[in-house]
């Protein structure tokens, strides 16, 4: 660990997230490989998207595109990129407007407002290229607001580059620096990487970092919700195409430019449902004590599904292979959602409460 130092501002607390063993889940599943989680909720703004927000703002400043006190940064997002941007812009003195579909959590909107951003909600049913979508509304605002600028995470090369230069290398270093022992054998390489895709910047950038300079044989697996169309081969998307899913931040009805379609960047795709993702969130919390959000549950559910597939089984059964799953944000983004309340506060989730009431009543 680096010696602690004073940081200049909150942007210096973006990234540098831990890689944590999911030993209990691996054991429950009978996995022989090392199951490792890149835990992104410890970043200053609470998600993997802080990294790209910081990178896009710094790059726009370098290019002279942002003017403090004048520029209005407008961005369509599922919320987490917005939170990162609002953080960066609070520090640097730019106004922020975030456009975000209705389905995204109240917590994200409240946090954005607390950071000084304005939030415009858009209908979930609007197709990405319609004027009513979060993308369409952002474009309209940009046309009409003087000094309005969209940094555009769907197209901005600094989105995947932020992961190629930070997230990927952090994973590689942690794996390479942890010695192999008889109790904990390790190839000291990343053998498999699994993560969800929204814009696709995370998986594309990390894949490039892993395959270019570290392990060209690393297998990269994308996780895409049923209802979305990002998975390949595209027949994987046929079942449930266009159906709604509650999980936030992954899946789209179009393929963003920053999701690389070059062969060998994403090797395989797995589809997941809400019914798989949300119990997996609870499992990560109760088995591993990690405070992760919905897309992290999808990532774990997708990882376990893949590790049981014909393609994944040889990795699952190999001692010392390192399988890294990216957990993109934290549960504090989702505490008002029904799926979270169902697993915590509602009566059926609280069998102990009734036992305790009986004990107290019998006194
Ligand atoms: N999970 C969550 C919670 C997210 O907010 C996002 C960003 N949309 C992702 C996963 C996917 O990241 P990316 O956009 O880099 O594909």
From TrEMBL:
Segments forming domain Tryptophan synthase beta chain-like PALP: 12-327
Keyword Cell cycle: no
Enzyme Commission code(s) on record: 4.2.1.22
Single GO MF annotation: cystathionine beta-synthase activity
A Pfam family recorded for this sequence: PALP
Catalytic activity: L-homocysteine + L-serine = L,L-cystathionine + H2O
InterPro entries: Cys_Synth/Cystath_Beta-Synth, P-phosphate_BS, TrpB-like_PALP, TrpB-like_PALP_sf
Cofactor(s) needed: pyridoxal 5'-phosphate
The UniProt record lists the keyword Transmembrane: no
SUPFAM superfamilies for this protein: Tryptophan synthase beta subunit-like PLP-dependent enzymes
UniProt pathway: Amino-acid biosynthesis; L-cysteine biosynthesis; L-cysteine from L-homocysteine and L-serine: step 1/2
Enzyme class: lyase
UniProt keyword terms in alphabetical order: Pyridoxal phosphate
GO BP terms, alphabetized: cysteine biosynthetic process from serine
The organism's place on the tree of life at top rank: Eukaryota
Family: Belongs to the cysteine synthase/cystathionine beta-synthase family.
Full protein name: cystathionine beta-synthase
Species annotation: Coniophora puteana (strain RWD-64-598) (Brown rot fungus)
Lineage of the species this protein comes from: Eukaryota, Fungi, Dikarya, Basidiomycota, Agaricomycotina
């Amino acid at each position: 660990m680096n010696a602690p130092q004073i940081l200049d501002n909150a942007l210096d607390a973006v990234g540098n997230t831990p890689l944590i063993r999911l030993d209990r889940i691996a054991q429950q599943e009978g996995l022989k490989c090392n199951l490792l989680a890149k835990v992104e909720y410890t970043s200053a703004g609470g998600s993997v998207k802080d990294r790209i927000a910081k990178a896009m703002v710094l790059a726009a400043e370098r290019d002279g595109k942002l003017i403090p006190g004048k520029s209005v940064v407008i961005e369509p997002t599922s919320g987490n990129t917005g939170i990162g941007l609002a953080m960066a812009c609070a520090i640097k003195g730019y106004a922020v407007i975030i456009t975000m579909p209705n389905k995204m959590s109240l917590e994200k909107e409240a946090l954005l407002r607390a950071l000084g951003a304005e939030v415009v909600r858009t209908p979930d049913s609007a197709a990405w290229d319609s004027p009513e979508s979060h993308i369409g509304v952002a474009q309209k605002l940009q046309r009409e607001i003087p000094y309005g600028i969209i940094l555009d995470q769907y197209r901005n090369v600094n989105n995947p580059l932020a992961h190629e230069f930070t997230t990927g290398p952090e994973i590689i270093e942690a794996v390479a620096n942890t010695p192999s022992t008889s109790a904990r054998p390790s190839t000291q390489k990343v053998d498999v990487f699994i993560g969800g895709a929204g814009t696709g910047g995370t998986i594309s950038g990390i894949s490039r970092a892993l395959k270019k300079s570290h392990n060209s044989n690393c297998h990269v697996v994308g996780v895409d919700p049923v209802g979305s169309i990002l998975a390949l081969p595209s027949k994987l998307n046929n079942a449930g195409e266009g159906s709604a899913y509650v999980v936030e931040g992954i899946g789209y009805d179009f393929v963003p430019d920053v999701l690389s379609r070059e062969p060998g960047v994403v090797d395989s795709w797995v589809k997941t449902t809400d019914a798989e993702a949300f119990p997996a969130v609870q499992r990560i919390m109760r088995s591993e004590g990690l405070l992760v959000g919905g897309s992290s549950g999808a990532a774990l559910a997708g990882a376990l599904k893949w590790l049981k597939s014909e393609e994944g089984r040889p990795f699952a059964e190999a001692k010392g292979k390192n399988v890294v799953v990216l957990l993109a944000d934290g549960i504090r983004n989702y505490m008002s959602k029904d799926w979270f309340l169902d697993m915590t506060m509602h009566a059926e989730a609280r069998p102990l409460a009734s036992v305790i009431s009986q004990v107290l009543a019998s006194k």
